[in-house]
Amino acid sequence: MASKMVAPSILSADFANLEKEIKAVSAAGADWIHVDVMDGRFVPNITIGIPVVKSLKKVSPLPLDVHLMIEEPERYVEDFIKAGSDYLTIHVEATKDPAAVLKRIRELGAKAGITLRPRTPVADILPLLSLCDLVLVMTVEPGFGGQSFMHDQIAKISVLRREIDSKKLACLIEVDGGINEETAKLCHEADVFVAGSYVFGRDYKTAISSLKL
């Protein structure tokens, strides 16, 4: 079985030293850098925007995996891709026409991702998988870091794995929320683990290595 990929979430990094943090997790074996974008509307928190992504792109040796937790993402996908997003993930609940937004992301040269809140049925995104390079399963309620893992979301990963494999789709499964060495084992059918406090709260290399097993 292929080694898992790890995308440390900078939401848990030291924002005063982001360049240093990104280069440190890169040297420690990370595969992507996960960037959480929140608008205070779709989720009750505000994080970073387009200028920060542009700055991160200049210093990151790794692909930027940008998760848009924003209403009407179609208004901003072009700007986020121009800023340097390699993967751009939208929420199925945040737009009236997710298929059109996913197609637009690909047209603009980025990898397209779809995700959903924990309470949204996985069936809502199954028809969109052929338009995606990435599907993100949230194992916490989006909006804040450091939450506890929601075990009832694991079943979504299995449904997605079966669907992707049966249709031979080139779509990675990513999991975000409460990921650590133990919860990662429960999500063994996924391809990519997003981890914030688990990586940035300890020795980076040890934490990242434990998730790749």
Describe the structure.
- This protein is of the alpha/beta class and 213 residues long.
- The protein has a single domain, classed as Aldolase class I (TIM Barrel).
- It is built from 8 helices and 8 strands, in the order βαβαβαβαββαβαβαα.
- The chain has helices at 18-27, 50-59, 77-83, 98-107, 154-166, 181-186, 197-200, 204-212, and strands at 5-8, 33-38, 64-69, 87-91, 111-116, 134-138, 172-176, 192-195.
- An 8-stranded parallel sheet has the order 1-8-7-6-5-4-3-2.
- Helix 5 (154-166) links the parallel strand 6 and strand 7.
- Helix 2 (50-59) packs parallel to helix 3.
- The mean pLDDT is 96.
Structure summary:
The chain is of the alpha/beta class and 213 residues long. It has helices at 18-27, 50-59, 77-83, 98-107, 154-166, 181-186, 197-200, 204-212; strands at residues 5-8, 33-38, 64-69, 87-91, 111-116, 134-138, 172-176, 192-195. The chain has a single domain, classed as Aldolase class I (TIM Barrel).
CATH architecture, by name, is: Alpha-Beta Barrel
Taking the alpha carbons of the first and last residues, their distance comes to 10 Å
Q: Could you tell me the number of beta strands? A: 8
Number of helices: 8
Share of residues in strands? 15-25%
Let me know the average pLDDT: 96
* Count of all domains: 1
Write out the strand line-up for the largest beta sheet, numbering strands in chain order.
Answer: 1-8-7-6-5-4-3-2
Q: What is the H/E order? A: EHEHEHEHEEHEHEHH
Please compute the radius of gyration using only Cα atoms: 16 Å
CATH C-level name = Alpha Beta
Low-confidence stretches: none
How helix-rich are the residues, as a percent range? Answer: 25-40%
Main sheet makeup: 8 strands, parallel
Shape: globular
